[in-house]
Amino acid sequence: MNPLFSRRELLKSSSCGFGLLALAGLCEQQLKASPAASESASSNPLAPRLPHFTPKAKRVIFMFMQGGPSHVDTFDYKPGLEKDDGKSPGQVPGKGNRKLLKSPWKFNPSGNSGLPISELFPHLSKHADDLCLLNSLHCDLPNHPQAAVQMHTGNFQFVRPSLGAWVLYGLGSENQELPGFITINPIARIGGAQNYGSSFLPAAFQGTKIGGEGVQLARASVPNIRNAELSGPQQRQQLDLLQKLNQDRLSADQVNPQLEGVIESYELAFRMQSAVPKVMDFADESPATLAAYGIGGAAGAKAVGKGGGGTDNFGRQCLMARRFAEAGVRFIEVGFGGWDQHASLRNRLTANCSGIDQPIAALLNDLKQRSMLKDTLVIWGGEFGRTPHAQNEDGRDHNATGFSMFMAGGGVKGGLRYGATDEHGIKAVEDKMHIHDLHATVLHLMGLDHEKLTYRYSGRDFRLTDVHGNIATKIIA
């Protein structure tokens, strides 16, 4: 009898077993290792591994703002843009006679460091001394699909492993009951699964999706995570029988990487049934914590569609990210779309920022109170920025030649403004930071040498940064 066949027939013969089968199918995709990555039946691709050198950060929380937030209205203060408002210097090829548009919002010196932060972020600005503003990012193309994929994988031309997958491949996971890479409400339309995929890396390292674009996180769950028919001990008995069949087959084959992945996937699925819902359940969080993140209440209950102004949905994402980080998940990404503001900049950017300002500030404060910010690297940003020129009177166009992101915690210097764009914010001109440089720096902070973190595929060694990447040493504490 073929154990692989019998295990499926056994589960399919009982409706109570289908949930575990479906959940294990999900885990199987994440845990199936290639022959090169699996050396024995007991090998675990997600086991913790030593970094190349002592890391500054143990985990990453990446907040991806899809659409391209306007840097000149948020974190890149440009007095020259205010001075030249209405002028048409013709510095952007192909933009005709578009006129410069000053920011409608004031920039206030914040914290002891005096970082200039837009008044759109009254809560976040209180954490200015924890922020490292990166004002000299640039990427290769000002198109959403290519730029978003490059931000996540380093390459927009070919399918490549995502940043989260590379981090998990290099370091493994600290919690064997949870996925090592989780993406919360990922943006589906731009990049899709490529943004959290593992490509040619073993599937063990791809991200586990929770929710999706436009999904209310309060109702999101991992499919088939609950079993309403069998108790935990009963499922354990059923699984023990299946695993015995598979182990017998493995003993006969001696080497069978696919079957090893099947065995581990069922074990992870069983463990996840209790571990994942527990982390996703906010019942043990105090009312004060929920209020701090903007969850519930009048402000949190506002509509939170794409780019909506309510804090509830993004607040839940941030709190869930903190809980997963605390539980030992290595890489967590949270998604928030609606930043592609070609028109109605004043209304739409105000709504976006009000939706994320309080939750991000609460996340930073929460991590700091738990002594986690020092070894948690928090990253915020989109795939590119916006032009300082006006579009449709009250909007801004795509700009890939200069834009802003920020980091906090995880070994970066707080209260720092790194790099610069030109006087109007069009192009990065000082300490320029390409996406490859960003990725090299993130890996370095995690204790990984981006030139040594390689994977043999199709006859050559691949790495996240390809043949590029310079570490931004000036931002490292």
UniProtKB/TrEMBL annotation:
Database matches in InterPro entries: Alkaline_phosphatase_core_sf, DUF1501, TAT_signal
Q: Which organism is it from?
A: Anatilimnocola aggregata
Task: Tell me the segments the record calls region Disordered.
Answer: 75-105
Check the UniProt entry and state the signal peptide residues, or none: none
Q: Which PROSITE patterns match?
A: TAT
Q: What is the name attached to this protein's record?
A: DUF1501 domain-containing protein
Basic and acidic residues bias (residue ranges): 75-87
Pfam family example for this protein? DUF1501
The organism's lineage is: Bacteria, Pseudomonadati, Planctomycetota, Planctomycetia, Pirellulales
